[in-house]
Amino acid sequence: QVQLVESGGGLVQAGGSLRLSCAASGRAFSTYAVGWFRQAPGKEREFVSTISWHSGNTHYADSVKDRFTISRVNAKNTVYLQMNSLKPEDTAVYYCAAGVAAGSRRSREYDYWGQGTQVTVSS
Predict the structure, then answer these.
(1) Would you say the C-alpha torsion 48, 64, 93, 84 has a positive or negative sign?
(2) Are 115 and 47 in contact (CB under 8 A)?
(3) Which residue from 46, 53, 40 is spatially nearest to 4, judged by alpha carbons?
(4) Burial of 24 (0-12, 13-18, 19+ CB in 10 A)
(5) Phi, psi of 63 (to 5 degrees)
(6) What whole-number distance in Å separates Cα of residue 31 and Cα of residue 123?
(7) Where are the beta strands (DSSP E) in the chain?
(8) Residue 101: pLDDT band by 50, 70, 90 thresholds?
(9) Residue 31: per-residue pLDDT
(10) Largest CB tally within 10 Å, which of 2, 50, 72, 109?
């Protein structure tokens, strides 16, 4: 019922910025929490940030807090992840996900996933 498409990944030098987008179709985000997760080679999928579509409440992993900002634009049915002060440790495939557990940091509680977008931060 929900299709998610991520975009905005790329190659950036340490200290630079990227903005990721997650656009939904099939069903509006209004009934879901939306989260960003990332996965580096050989590592488990890691929580990054989440936003409740209705309330706007946000949560961040400690590793990205004060550097990343999650937001949503109702008219575009889109969630953004603004990533500033990027570090090589941020290199991963970033996935957008939607679920019903507001504020959840657990990937298993998200039901719908995008294909992912690669973010590479060079030294």
Answers:
(1) positive
(2) no
(3) 53
(4) buried
(5) -70, -20
(6) 40
(7) 3-7, 10-13, 18-25, 33-39, 46-52, 58-60, 68-73, 78-83, 92-99, 110-113, 117-122
(8) confident
(9) 64
(10) 50
* Count of other CB atoms within 10 angstroms of residue 64: 24
10-13 vs 117-122, strand pairing mode: parallel
> pLDDT (tens digit, 9 = 90+) per residue, 17-32?
999 999 988 766 666 7
The DSSP code for 115 is -
Contact 65, 58 (CB under 8 A): no
Specify whether the CB–CB gap between 11 and 77 falls below 8 A: no
Q: Which amino acid belongs to residue 89? A: E
Place of tokens 């996965």: 39
